[in-house]
Amino acid sequence: MALSDAEKAALELLFGKIKADAEKIGCEAMESLFQHHPDTKSHFTHMDVTPGSQDLKTHGGKIIHAINDALSHYGNLQENLAALRELHTNKLKLSVDTIKLLCGCLLEVIVKHFPDVDKSACDKFLNKVAIALISS
Ligand code: HEM
Questions:
Q1: Can you say whether residue 47 is alpha, beta or left, with left for phi > 0 and alpha for psi between -120 and 50 degrees?
Q2: CA distance 12 to 32
Q3: 89-126 burial: b if 16+ Cβ within 10 Å, else e
Q4: For 101-123, how does the pLDDT look when each residue is reduced to its tens digit (9 = 90+)?
Q5: Rounded-to-integer distance, Cα 131 and Cα 109, Å
Q6: Which of 16, 40, 57, 85 allows an S-S link to 27, with CB 3.0 to 4.6 Å?
Q7: What are 40-89's pLDDT values in tens digits?
């Protein structure tokens, strides 16, 4: 189901705050991914995956900015995420289920930092991003 205007507005407000701490929050999501799903580390052998490493902060920041950008282009998600879809589908050969693992970890981290978040709207949006990141 599509996000309502109210849900989208609330998420924009939320991501405005998340963006201000993008590296920290993105890094925590990556740490959670590796903790709960250690197999996913195999995609990051070229990075320092030690918790709190600069690599994880930089990469985490990129993820948050990409998701925030996708929210700004919500009506046009497919086009906005075309380059990242090419990367994650064709180059990295990830499945949508693997992408959703990170979405789940990110949601957990967001709830920790912003307990009042509309969890279901956030989950709905992250799910749409996951689907748009992988072409079947
Ligand atoms: C919501 C989910 C995700 C988003 C928004 C996302 C976003 C991104 C972004 C923005 C980049 C950087 C692209 C660039 O530098 O041009 C990237 C790279 C990458 N992503 Fe994802 N990603 C997601 C999920 C995942 C998952 C679950 C994995 C693996 C388990 C993964 C593996 C990678 C890898 C290996 C790279 C290349 C890293 C590098 O060499 O710099 N991504 N992703």
A1: beta
A2: 24
A3: beeeebebebbbbbbbbbbebbeeebeebeeebbbbbb
A4: 999 999 999 999 999 999 999 99
A5: 21
A6: 57
A7: 999 999 999 999 999 999 999 999 999 999 999 999 999 999 999 999 99
Count the residues in the chain: 136
Residue nearest to atom 35 of ligand 1 (CA): 43
Q: What is the C-alpha to C-alpha distance for residues 95 and 136, in angstroms, rounded to an integer?
A: 9
Q: Ligand 1 pocket: which of 88, 108, 110 to mutate (most atoms <8 Å of CB)? A: 88
Task: Give the pTM.
Answer: 0.97
Which amino acid, residue 83?
Answer: A
ipTM score: 0.97
Which residue has a Cα nearest atom 6 of ligand 1?
63
Using an 8 Å Cβ cutoff, are 111 and 117 in contact? yes
Taking the CA of residue 46 as reference, the ligand 1 atom at the shortest distance is 40
pLDDT at residue 136 above 80?
Answer: no
